Amino acid sequence: MDPAVRHPVLSEAELEEMAPRSQRAAPSTLTRMKKKIRCSGSVAKSLLLKFIPILGWLPRYPVKEWLLGDIVSGLSVGIIQLPQGLAYALLAGVPPVFGLYSSFFPVLLYAIFGTSRHISPGTFAVISVMVGSVTESLVPSENYRLPGNESVIDIAARDNDRVEVASALTFLVGLFQIMLGLVQVGFVVTYLSEPLIRGYTSAAAIHVTVSQMKSVLGVQISQRSHPLSLIYAFVNLCAKVPETNIASLLIGCISITVLFLVKFLNDKYSSKIRMPIPIELITLIVATGISYGASLHQVYGVDIVGEIPTGMKAPMLPNTDIFARVVGNAFAIAVVVYAFTISLAKMFGVKHGYNIDSNQELIALGLSNSIGSFFQCFTIGTAMSRSLVQESTGGHSQVASAVSSLVILIIILKAGELFETLPKAILAAVVVVNLKGIYKQFTDVPMLWRSNKFDLLVWLVTFIATILLNLDIGLAVSVAFSLLTVIFRTQKPHYSILGKVHNTDIYRDVAQFDQVQEIQGVKIFQSSCTLYFANANLYAEAVKKMCGTDVDTLIELKKKAMKKQKQLQEKAEKQMKKENKKREKELDAIVSNSPAAKEPEIQIAADYEVLEEAGLDYLGSEKCNLHSLILDLSTAGFLDTVSIKVLKNIFRDFQEIDVQVYLTGCQVYIIEQLEAGNFFSKSITKNLLFNSVHDAVTYISRTHGQQDTKGSDTCLNTKI
Amino acid sequence: MDPAVRHPVLSEAELEEMAPRSQRAAPSTLTRMKKKIRCSGSVAKSLLLKFIPILGWLPRYPVKEWLLGDIVSGLSVGIIQLPQGLAYALLAGVPPVFGLYSSFFPVLLYAIFGTSRHISPGTFAVISVMVGSVTESLVPSENYRLPGNESVIDIAARDNDRVEVASALTFLVGLFQIMLGLVQVGFVVTYLSEPLIRGYTSAAAIHVTVSQMKSVLGVQISQRSHPLSLIYAFVNLCAKVPETNIASLLIGCISITVLFLVKFLNDKYSSKIRMPIPIELITLIVATGISYGASLHQVYGVDIVGEIPTGMKAPMLPNTDIFARVVGNAFAIAVVVYAFTISLAKMFGVKHGYNIDSNQELIALGLSNSIGSFFQCFTIGTAMSRSLVQESTGGHSQVASAVSSLVILIIILKAGELFETLPKAILAAVVVVNLKGIYKQFTDVPMLWRSNKFDLLVWLVTFIATILLNLDIGLAVSVAFSLLTVIFRTQKPHYSILGKVHNTDIYRDVAQFDQVQEIQGVKIFQSSCTLYFANANLYAEAVKKMCGTDVDTLIELKKKAMKKQKQLQEKAEKQMKKENKKREKELDAIVSNSPAAKEPEIQIAADYEVLEEAGLDYLGSEKCNLHSLILDLSTAGFLDTVSIKVLKNIFRDFQEIDVQVYLTGCQVYIIEQLEAGNFFSKSITKNLLFNSVHDAVTYISRTHGQQDTKGSDTCLNTKI
User: Fold this and answer.
1) Do B691 and B602 share a structural domain?
2) Which of A357, B266, B340, B588 minimizes the number of CB atoms within 10 Å of its CB?
3) Does A142 touch chain B (CB under 8 A)?
4) Is residue A377 pLDDT above 90, yes or no?
5) Collapsing DSSP states into helix, strand and coil, what is residue A502?
6) Within an 8 Å CB–CB cutoff, is residue B420 touching chain A?
7) What does UniProt give as GO cellular component (chains A, B) (predicted)?
């Protein structure tokens, strides 16, 4: 069996990647393959195959098995791309035809460069509204009031400028994606954790809905993107409710109901029908027909799509003057587009068993967007709903995307103008109904409440920040917050004192388990998290507190006692000298009178007794409770200078009160970091490091064996 | 022995805190004490003692032992406070006399409310320059040009406004500190890790030096705080070098040299002299004398301190209009002041064996600043150099601070005007020389390079950000960056495959140790860090990669094989049916002819063989290398939904290729989080959890015992 037939759409690069393992199964054929690649193509060819995957899979495309499915799927997707393209263009703040362009060029480019076979690239609500917030804030309608009549806006000039902004933005988005792909830092997307993405898209859906409500109500409100603009827009909208165009509202409500119902039936009977009913296309056609026939625009003042130029526009370089003002948004959009695409691509990859090259995905998206921007496309992403249609209608490969883009091409070239009388309310309905999947994400809240409160917090903060601060600043705040949660989660760890499970070498939290017993004279301390600057001081406090020994007071008492001892010693020495002198004098006078001379010595002894009672004895009676402290560092992933300093201080403080400290469970890297941080010294030797808690306990019980039994006796006495 | 004598300066609250332990040593006296407190004072009194520590320690002040030391120390510190107060006032952008006020009121207040006995509160270079950046940016000199003569600035009006800004800022700083103290969130300071603080102060020292160079050179430059303003100021300064006032420069250079030398000698012979030579005071007096005698201001144009009003000013409410504009800076300054104070206080506390109440420290600083602000003080902090003087000259308690503030009071009331002819260059020299300790921090760079690269990065980023973006934005950027390093450090952990140390139950990284052997058929995987959203996907990739098994390809092959198998089965069934029909026909024709009917079955068998070769056999030969995967989660401190999902996927993928996955070393909290996250299911049961790696290995070797020996035989064959 020839491997090329066995893996019809695996690129040669992929085959080569597989080779080391595959060799065992079928060494002869694969070795031949590899040799062939090496001989004929060399490095250049394999790079070419890596960067242009279509060269790898198209020659081996199994026409007989896949082509029909791809065509059916491509047609279905193309039919969805049309209304979505028109609708999302309005979200992006540009005339509808640019949505069609965006559903053609980038989609075709992705088919050439992409590695996912099932996702459907193209216009996407969340990304479109992000683009829209940039175009609307940089090119606000207010700036285009006609000089003579202030209430009329020069829509043509405004839209022209908006298209310019959108394509410049899209070019930058593409550029960022290519750069990220080339330097292989696709991992930035890991900062966008799932709760964040879901909270973000939920907020985006609210933004989209509010922005579409004006089309459904048939009113005009000026919308500018700034913090709290969503709230202002909503208030403005409510104020304009009395001006509602009833015809628009009716069209909107009816079409939303129809779309929703039919989509529901499509989902329900998806297993029974080969292809979902193209209800969006049907609605579009019917509505356009009615609108044209009943002259809805002229008679009822219903807002319609308006002029859709037929044919292509000549490519144009993006306006570089705009770059500086959109660079931040471009980066955010680039990352968000990638995050959606890669998660969908990986999902399908896992389902159908093929690998996704995440860096190549970035490059594919980048090329789609940056080349697309020359043709005035706005930024594309990947819509989950459309991708599911592509997969479920039998799409096997990127050919389906290519077919769908051809459908759009035909419409651009021939049928665009037919949709000129389409009411905008229909497009709004298409947008709103397509958000159904995102609205469902609100059920995340109770789910996360049960499963993970921190992730719920991330979800909620992302949602609220994005609602209040808009999609750009909201995203930045959300990412910052979700990174901060890592600090929160590690800053106040669970601290536990471990005890031994009877007759085993297992040590567990004494507070959690009943059958666990602490070892006499030994405290075993564990933190649930790694030790670093934000929790190091808390760690030290917790150690001291949980040891049940007021270490600081003990040290204080000891220092005082030492001082007192020194003073007493000095005093005694002085007195001795005095006495000696006196005695010498006495000796001079009387030759022998010893009993009197003993008096001062008794005095000193009494002083020492007072001292013992005051401090040293206190120390002694405490000490018998604790002679060893084991710090289990098995949860430590890294150490910084602050944590090393804190550990040093713990060693110093406990050694001061004659408690020996041991470290256990240090990973190799931790020991290296301890060494680099000058942790080890005369008083902290490497002999205090043990592999496991049990090793340390064994060592301690061996060395303290005798003292221990003695100690516990006195303990019982003093404890009463 | 009476406890009151034993702990002369412990507050009763402290005593009570100690009580539970102390009881054992001297139960009778302490129980009596506690009863006394409870009877007479109740909660109100103990709260009073907590919030006004002086009520606790002053009645028990050991006059005979401590008073002399405290007076000597207080005089020494007061003598230093004078020049520093005058000099740092210039840093804060206000006339020198306000530095004297700031060295009096807040210092006295701290003596009443503070719990540290050895720190010297008062003006501090870093804080003063932070205040200065606010006053200079809100009240720039440019706004005070006289209407007639543009080159002359109305200094009196400007300084008046600056004082207003400084005291409003200081009031807010105090308010923030009190609030932080009352809600007990002093822990915010843990975000200011040591490398950050040191990098920050080093940058602040550069800011201070540049701002003082204009006084030394005797030139005027307008300085406004904004990003990159330090660079502009330096460039402006260089441009003005030709205008240098030679007399000023000479005074500055000579005094810097003298101060530096004498301070060096003071340090060197600190053990031999009871009190350091008050060289700053001497320089001040000598310089003032010379300046007055030689009329330096009038003859050589040397810039002098100017009018110092005698006596106090009436207290004034801070201007609330300014609050909104300084609130961000106030918070930053509040935290920085606290960070310096608490670290010094804890250092002395450890050295002398007493406890610091960090929340009370915040309240003490807050009261000092907020009440001080009514008297036009600017924000105070704690200078390390001065505190060391206070301690080394025999200071035992807050009485030293009180004495030092009285020294300043006398100067304010009587001697202030004597310093009116003091050249500003002298004050600049005092500032610069006092930064010596901070300059030494540059040696951190090589030290950190050796010990911890990440901490070095924090140091450098903090330093550069603070230099370029100034002290306010620089601090925010630095804190954000230092928190990000936690992400960096945990995002790319070390992954290791563990093996067993011969004849022990210890498992160690096979790549690090020679005598460690992997267990046949079992991979034990460990990550050095906790598993969370930013590294979860990398973890999954690393597991798959380090297992030496191309899991994705195996799954792909398996799915293909299954599909093929299904197709073949269908084909076979069809053929069977066909054959059956044929046979039936044949049966109709000829009654018995069985051998011919067997042919198709042989065909199917052959197909299966091809299939086995292609995929299933491949799977089989891989499988014998690996039947179990152990994920050691002992380093996990918490799990989030992303990491639980990733773990689930690992289970699913490996179970797909018949590798059983086990989890070991999960802490109790981790298991709870797994449960909450719906991790366990039919295929992932709690039976797959083990206490330790060894337990899991024991279990696996028991269940796989027989298969294992069989497996390894075939393995040897296929491996060649």
Assistant:
1) no
2) B588
3) no
4) yes
5) coil
6) no
7) membrane
